Structures are given as structure tokens and as C-alpha cells.
């Protein structure tokens, strides 16, 4: 029998040893079966012995990953080359200035290229059919040796189906798409600038404490319009730096035809949204962030795709499958979107190359993977509650194609980019989601602590101050899997969306319009609201996880909600903006909330409690409404009592002595 090595060498060498030993012994992939061992599975079991009954599930997942890596080695020369397929698909300019076009359209009868370059002739430039549903076309350079397709000119793929239809499509690999002002459909624009942007600044080192500023470029201005990459670079980045955040999570960057989808209905996966500016302006934004020591994560959506056909992936080759499962498996009933077929070779090529593209071309530092729960289970989390019983995370309800894709994605990313950060948005609590692939985990660095903001909203909506359950608050903030890092947050974009309210609005509501001026006496509602706003954020920061996240504007208690222009609001931008001008007015109390958020982050930077082991909670007193815990040699004392203060309050400390204090005033 072959002796299988663990996954711990180089990109192509990781499974080369496995392949060599299999060949040497005369064994085949079919013999892997039960002989596959998870190299560090004992570490996982040591962390959580209750996973032992599910060892076979872990082994099967790991075996499927091993097989996938072996096949990549055999067919593509390893995943390093495979994940650079953006260099061969779509359109590529060769050294002689000829243009090479390549697409995957397995159900198509014929493919043609049309555009500005040929006067929109639909039949003059035909692709040649190759193996495995691939199509190729080469355009020689012009007489002056310049490329046949000019930079910034429009293109379309014309797909002829077996049923005789003629379809006009955008290449799935398009790097830039734009929309005319009054048009509905996006256009594929050839992006090949004569002087592309060159990054100057190196990536910052991966921080031990991750403080994330979740941001949306389009709403990054007080003005009622779509803000730009340049505006974000000039006006928002300095604020983020001043606030003490060391990481930005950028939403709605991958191109999405419908602005009000908040960037979660992707139409062009390789294109940075043109509504904010050009690709080079996004590259500059990231470069400037790096110069400030700030990492930039991309909110990546690989859980589903827009149903758009003319400017999306849906029915690219005329079939109801191609990149997706055929219906009903290939459709998400709640999101009205298409679901990827993660077992397809070409879908893996597309998605893994997509991750690599954003890291290589734009120099993002990692990803927040959206909608992971929908990927992990065949039921997509619809109508399903998770109690934490381990049987919910294993068995036939788990979509192992998706699980293996996520393991593969994390394996590739962390092998090629050891400092890459991946964050999972999962509400289910899947065990080992944030443990190494070598242990049998899915390989994410962090998961979002999604129960925390829900708890705060529930408390503010349903309970009077004197009814707050102190033990329940502590339980929610500390109830996370040991050894799997969490990003804690009091609120994110979800809580700010129309239909809900931000914490500040729940706390102070309409008084925020009239009583936030320091030129008038502070009302009881504003006083209570500001103190609880600070306390909720600080206790979440200190107790809730190994990273912290804030959505833009919430650091200073941004009033109102977030709503994008749509038919239901007369296409208004009034609520699709962030009123940073409120912080810049000396007489408004928003400045005080901003200053507290800044000081909170700077204090964490000094003491590093996010990188420390979980806090030790020494008191959770229901009658006094007091919570006491220490973490990273910092003593936290919170008095949530609505009308009682305490003097000479005795608390336990690890080391006796005098402690300098900071008050939430």
C-alpha cells in the first residue's frame, strides 16, 4: 500500500509525492479510500473530543480534497497554474500584440466575437471549437502593429445555440464592464491601458489583532450620489487610519448590475465595479491603504450569482446549467439567484482563479466569504434552525461539493499567500470551520460572530433596562468554539439596512435629529443612548471575539438607516450615503462617539486583548447589573444598572495593585 504524505510542501509539490508513490506502487486513486489519514486530526480531537463519532465524515471530506489536488496535479500541473487561468481565458494580449480569446461554453453550437473593432459584424470573427467545450479565437495586430481591439472599446460574445438561438453575452472573464447612463444592460469594455497602475507600497504585515472597518465605496460621502474610489482614497481612508482600524472590508466591489443588491447579486466576477471609477483607481485605493499600514479584504460572493443573462453568467452558453446546477438544485428560492456546480472542473477553475485574480491584480489581502451557510447545506439554511447538535453538521444534508471547494480555496490561498486572511459568514456554527485543512477543518482564519449583533438588537427592541439579563449577555459574547477565532461586532451593514435600525437609532431614535448639539442641555434619552452605545461596543470589543468589526459610520452613531435607490423610494440617494460631515461639526455630540471608538481601538492596539486568550469573567451580577472580566492584563468593569452607581465596589483581580482607569463618559 502507498504511504501518503501530508499536505505541507510547495504548491505543486504538495501532492506530487502522493502521485509519485501511487505510481511507484501501481496503486490508483480508487485505492485511497480508507487509507487516507488526516495529518493533524488528533489536534482537532484534542480540542474537541466530541467530534470523534464523526471521524469518517472528516476523513471522507479530506479524501475528496486529496483526490481533487491529485487530479489538478495530473491534468493541470498543479493548482498554481490552474488558478492563473485568468491569464489564458477571456482576452489576452500576446507579446506580438495579437489578441487571444478563449471561452468555455460546452452547450454552444458556435461562438463569434463582435464589437467596435469590426463594426459590430456578428459573423466575421468565429471562434474555433476545441476539446472540453472550449472555444478559441486569435486576432492578429493591425497594420501599425497595434492590437486589433482598442483599449476602452466594446465587445460582445455572440453565442449560437443548438436550438438556433443567437445570444449576446459578456465574457465571464471580463475585467471591466460599464453601463451607459440610461441603459439597463452592462457592456463588456476591453481594458488594456497603455500605462497600467503599478503598486508602490508592500502589503502590511498580518496583524495579531484584527480591527476591521466594513465599508461600501458608493456610500462613502455625505452627498446624495454614488461616491467614487478616489473619494474613498482621499476622504475616507484618513478617517479609518485615525480611528485605529488596521483592516478594511470592502463590500460591493465585484460588479453587480443592480446597485440596491448591496453587491450580493454578482454579474461580472472579475470586474471591479465601474460605477465608482476605473480599475486603476481601485488599485490606487488599495495601494494608499497599504501605505497607511491597513489591510484590505474583499467581500467575495461565491455562494451564488445573479440570474441576469445578457450581462451575467446565467445561461452563458444557452443552457440552464454551464456554471451552475440545473434547476431546481441550481436555483436559490429566497435569493432568486443561481447556485454554482462546485463539482465541475471548469467552475473550480473559474472560482479559484477569481480569488487569485483579486489578490494578484488588485493586491487585496484576503476575503470575507459571503453566504457560507447557504453553501454548506443542501437546504441552504432555509427554514432550518441550528441548535448546535453535531448531527446537524454531518450527513446527507451537507453539500460536500461545497465543503470541499471551500477547503480547496483555503488550502490554495494559504499555501500561495501565507498571510492571506479568510473570514467566513456562517450562522450555523459548523465545527472546524476555522481549523486548518490539515486537521480536517475548512481552513478559514475567522468566522463572524453573528449571534452577537442579533442579541443586542433583541435586547434593545424587547427589554427595559432593568430587565437586561446579564448572564445571557455574557453567554452570548463568550459562546464560541474554543480554538476557532471569531470576529465580534455590535452591528454591521445588516443592522443598518432599511427595515431595521442601527444601535444608535434604537437607543436615541428621533432625538438624534434635535438633541445631538452640545450647545443645548443633554436630555436623558441622549445621555442614556450615548453611554450604552459606548458600553455595548466596548464589551463586544473586549469579550466577544478575536477580531472586531464596525460598519462605516456606526462608529459615530450614524443616524437613520441605509437604503439604496430603488423604485420603492423614488430612486433616492438620501439614505445611501454616510454623513461624515456630522463628525466634523465641533458642536455635535457625534464627535464624542467618534472619539470613544478611536480611543477604544488605540487602547486595544496598546494592550492587544483581541490577540489574547479568551477573557476570564469574574463577575456577572444580575441585581447590580455588573459585569467584570480581565483579558490581556486589562480589567474591564461594566455597570449596566439604569439608575444605580457603586463606590468601593469589590472585584477580583489576578494581581493586586493600582489600576489606571478609563471611564465611558
TrEMBL record:
Point out the coiled-coil segments of this chain.
none
GO terms under cellular component: cytoplasm
Name a GO molecular-function annotation.
cation binding
Enumerate the spans annotated as Glycosyl hydrolase family 13 catalytic domain: 207-589
- Catalytic reaction equation(s): Transfers a segment of a (1->4)-alpha-D-glucan chain to a primary hydroxy group in a similar glucan chain
**Keyword NAD on entry:** no
Write down the EC number.
2.4.1.18
Keywords for the protein's UniProt record, in alphabetical order: Glycosyltransferase, Transferase
Give the residues annotated as active site. Answer: 370 (nucleophile), 425 (proton donor)
- Identify the pathway: Glycan biosynthesis
A Pfam cross-reference name: Alpha-amylase
Q: Which InterPro entries match?
A: A-amylase/branching_C, Branching_enzy, GH, GH13_cat_dom, Glyco_hydro_13_N, Glyco_hydro_b, Ig-like_fold, Ig_E-set
Q: Name one GO biological process term.
A: glycogen biosynthetic process
Q: Which SUPFAM superfamilies match?
A: (Trans)glycosidases, E set domains, Glycosyl hydrolase domain
The entry sums up its family as follows:
Belongs to the glycosyl hydrolase 13 family. GlgB subfamily.
Protein's recorded name: 1,4-alpha-glucan branching enzyme
Give the organism, scientific name: Oreochromis aureus
Q: Quick one: which gene encodes this?
A: gbe1b
